[in-house]
From TrEMBL:
Protein name in the entry: Dihydrofolate reductase
Domain of life, per lineage: Bacteria
Any Pfam family the entry gives: RibD_C
Annotated Bacterial bifunctional deaminase-reductase C-terminal domain residues: 4-169
GO biological process: riboflavin biosynthetic process
Organism per entry: Kribbella sandramycini
Gene Ontology MF term list: 5-amino-6-(5-phosphoribosylamino)uracil reductase activity
Length: 194
């Protein structure tokens, strides 16, 4: 069985987006390097540093299922039916869309993070599961469902916005020492939970 990895690009002060859901300079590193890398969508290249490319090419191919929240689904229009990474996306929501124009896309819906992780484990086989989103990350950590954290630290202070761990209400947790990869305008910190 693969790992459940909570993943996000995060500002130095802990935000994954500004108050208007904009990512601004958080995502600059996806387009500031000479090496082309791809997630699932072959029409959406990223251009990153060699160090970031090595890190992404080591981690992304292992992801089989992504779990996202309804907010990210709506903001991206579900990436027009193509998962950003992996083969399948599970959207946590109490109200699945009824008029989404990509009904045959590999997207399913769940009403809780627990249900989503159960579905994802079934679909992922021995592959990894990625959880993206501040509220979902906090819920998954609180429920003890996360094995690893991929914290992609961008050198920016947003001052306000949506926090990565906003809804975590569990006990104090120790993490193992991180794998550290220094990219251009990002530091990849990859932790296992103890």
């Amino acid at each position: 069985m693969g790992s459940v990895i909570a993943s996000a690009v995060v500002s130095l002060d802990g935000f994954i987006a500004d108050p208007d859901d904009g990512v601004g300079p958080l995502f600059d590193w996806y387009h500031n390097g000479p090496v082309e890398v791809y997630g699932t969508d072959q029409s959406r290249p990223f251009h990153v540093s060699q160090a970031s490319a090595d890190y992404l090419n080591d981690t992304w191919p292992n992801v089989r299922v992504c779990i996202i929240g309804r907010r990210l689904f709506d903001l991206t229009n579900g990436w027009h039916g193509v998962p950003a990474v992996g083969d399948h996306v599970i959207v946590v929501t109490h109200q699945p869309p009824t008029d989404w124009p990509f009904p045959d896309a590999p997207f399913t819906f769940a009403t809780s993070i627990e249900e989503a992780v159960t579905q994802a484990r079934h679909r992922a086989g021995d592959g990894d599961i990625s959880i993206t989103g501040g509220n979902l990350t906090g819920q998954a950590l609180t429920a003890g469902l996360v094995d690893e954290i991929a914290y992609n630290l961008a050198p920016v202070l947003l001052g306000a916005g949506r926090r990565f761990f906003d809804t975590y209400t569990g006990p104090q947790r120790l993490l193992d020492n991180p794998r550290v990869v220094q990219g251009n305008r990002v530091t990849h910190l990859h932790y296992r939970l103890s």
